[in-house]
Amino acid sequence: MQKLFTLLLVLHVCTCVRAQNVTLPPVFTQQESENAHRSPMTKTYLTPTRIVWQSDDSGKFIQHPELLLKKSNGQVAVNDPKLLRLISTAEHKPGILLDYGRELHGGIKISMGIKPGKEPVKVRVRFGESAMEAMSNVGGKRNATNEHSLRDFIIEVPWLGSIEVGETGFRFVRIDLVDEGVNMPLYAVQAAFVYRDIPYLGSFESSDERLNEIWRVGAYTVHLNMQDYLWDGIKRDRLVWVGDLHPEIMTVASVFGNNNVVPRSLDLARDQHPLPQWMNTISSYSMWWLIIHKQWFDNYGDLDYLKEQEAYMIGLLDQLETFIDENNGEILNGGRFLDWPTSPDKKAVHAGLQSMMILTFDAGSDMMATLGKPDLQKKYANVALRLRKHIPEGNTTKQAAAMMALAGLVDAQQINKDILRKDGVQNMSTFYGYYMLEAMANAGDHAGAMDVIRQYWGGMLDLGATTFWEDFDINDSRNAVRIDELVPAGKDDIHGDFGEFCYVGYRHSFCHGWASGPTAWMSQHVLGITLLEGGDAVKINPHLGDLKYAKGTYPTKHGLIRVMHFKGVDGKVQSVVDLPVGMKQIK
User: Taking every annotated instance into account, which residue ranges of this chain make up the domain Alpha-L-rhamnosidase six-hairpin glycosidase (predicted)?
Assistant: First the structure.
């Protein structure tokens, strides 16, 4: 009978439409379709893994909190008598702090069951990348903010309904009742996790599980930042910072392969900053844009895409050449920036920028050769030669020293001994840490670089990190507790008590793509995989250090490279390599 009724209804609608000579509209008109933005993102709803804190343990103000930890379909119903209840009085407004187990991007979906009064219920929502951030108030000494993404606000939850709010980076959520005299039947508080649903094509496994976990966390850090564009951070700044993109795209290439979020972000930066503007107002970030394009072409060989950049590249390289003085030193204007820790040190900044100018003109010369412009190839190669005649003096920072080694201005082994290995992992930075690792590899100190990864990036894991941070000073961890714990008296809050420059206190981003360098570094230097000739060739040169074995995969335009390296009893490395069809190995 039901099927017959449905059929008759459909026939009736169709008859009415024909009789009135009406054409049913498509889902979107052509104009609407052209104006629509189709997001590549996926949304999944997650259940909290534990309750970190609740304001009441007596059962008077919070009843059945354990129900929030049961998987929910998010659909409220009229016959769920046993729900979590938040009950407020004038003296007590209950609150609860939830942990979703790992850093996420998105918001939360709060669902309320049935209650006698149909008025909505006001709740205060606080997101946090650490437990303590979710317990904080905006402002104050620890500098919690609502900048870039709202993480502390009041909303109304509808009677017998749901509301979904939030667009930020978080792991923890605190929910508090705002008004007195409320008995709220809370059905579920689910994380609305927004992410790119793409496979992890690259992989890394070794005899050291700490390194394995660091590789995975670096990959996940960048994955979360692969939103509509490739961001620096999911809580802040949520922007396309071109300098940040370089270590990020190295990780994208190692894990996800040729994903269009990279060219999409590079094109956005180009179009947002027509010459003579510097990208993000920072001269070095314009240089990173050129270096990234060279790397992206080496991996994927998309000549048509490179040709699209030709006019801007030539204009930018010619503009950069005007910022060289008679002594062959750079005199760049705009924001003069390497990373935050070096920003007050003018000698370090100059040394780093001089090195970047050399690397940029080397990359520019190579790209002009690829584009079939021999005159420009020679011109930019000569500019790089001029720049190498000026060797900055007085720098002692690891960041600038690493760049000078990579640019060939100093001996890599001497710099590694005198500066990079000095004081262990003190004076590191999460952004330029990648280039320190690269410089150590240039010096042949792969084992030392792996120790740095274990201690520095592993130090964040020891503090509960599930993604890598905007900055990390190993000295701050001495008296600090993990980010998934509330800080007792006499202990330091690793999130709220430290930081400087733009990342003071809770403003500090705990998911920052520029910190993912070890993932790309281990794929390239431990697995030994370097793509060449536009991704048609590969050089495989593994360095196991103290590892017994290392194996993994690397995505290319031809398919996956698979490698397995074992250290024999004689200490020599034996390798098994499986290349996809169409790719050759260069010895």
Answer: 201-526
